Every structure is written in structure tokens, then in C-alpha cells.
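Moderator note: this is an archived Q&A kept for reference. The question asked for a predicted structure of one protein chain; the sequence and the answer are reproduced below.
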Amino acid sequence: AGATKDSSEAGRKQFARHEWAQKAAYLLGCTLEELSSAIFKQQPKGSLQRSTSFRQGPEEAGLADGSGPKISALECLEALTSGLYSELFTLLICLLNRALKSSQRSLCSMMIVDTPGLQNPEMAGQSRGATFEELCHNYAQERLQGLFHEHSFVQELERYKEEN
């Protein structure tokens, strides 16, 4: 549905495409007004801050003057989608665990790794270099990708060669 600021003096945060936002609200089982309020309404002081994928220092976040974090409309929407994804992933894991649950001891296991992919500040429209945290995240992502390739392709090919 996208997000944007209203062009009026107030600069109110709102959805860029109301028809898509209406469909999202329908699928979530709420009204468009409730969805807009949950995403864009300013949180009272002392409440939990929204989680976004952007890391900011206190000055960049607007905390230096005590006014609270300056969160863009797009960051608000990204926080919602991140939270929904997290909830769906947790639900998937619970359903898989329930389906695999057995009264007998088992030697089988399943590993599910959920990584968001490589992080590149330039792709997010930022003109800064990558932080140490992003470097570590990207390194772990590369290692996991290599492990997946090794187990999915290389070891399977070796096993096929041994069987012939």
C-alpha cells in the first residue's frame, strides 16, 4: 500500500494507495482507520518504540531534543510488515513442532534458518558505508548460504557418485 506524508501543512502520515491499504485491512480483520491508527499514530512517551530495520544514533533519531524518535511513514509501515512476518514465522515453527511431536523418542530433526538477506545501505537509499553490525550480518549470511549449498548440492552429488 506504500506510505507517504500528506501534502498539507500538518504533514500527516498516510497510505499512498488507499485501495491496497483497504485490502490489507480486510485481510487483517480490521477497518482502514484502525490499521492507519495502529501504524501511523504517534506513540505516547514512555511506550515501547517501534522496531525498524534502520539503525540510527540518538541525534539522527530526534532524541537529542527530547521530542522522541523521528520515524518516517515508510519506516512505520516497514515496522508493521516486519512484525507480521515475525508472527507468521513463529506460527509456522509452532505448527511444525506440533506436527512433528511424537510420544516416542526420535532422532530426526529439522533446522529452519530465517535470515533477511544481505544488508546494503546503498540499496536502502543511504549514502553511508556499511556498519560493523551489517558487516557481521552479511558475513553470517554468506556462511549460511555456503552451508546450505554444501548440504543441498555438493554432499548430494558426492553421495550419488558413491552409489554408482
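Archived answer notes: Residues 46-64 have pLDDT under 50 and may be disordered.
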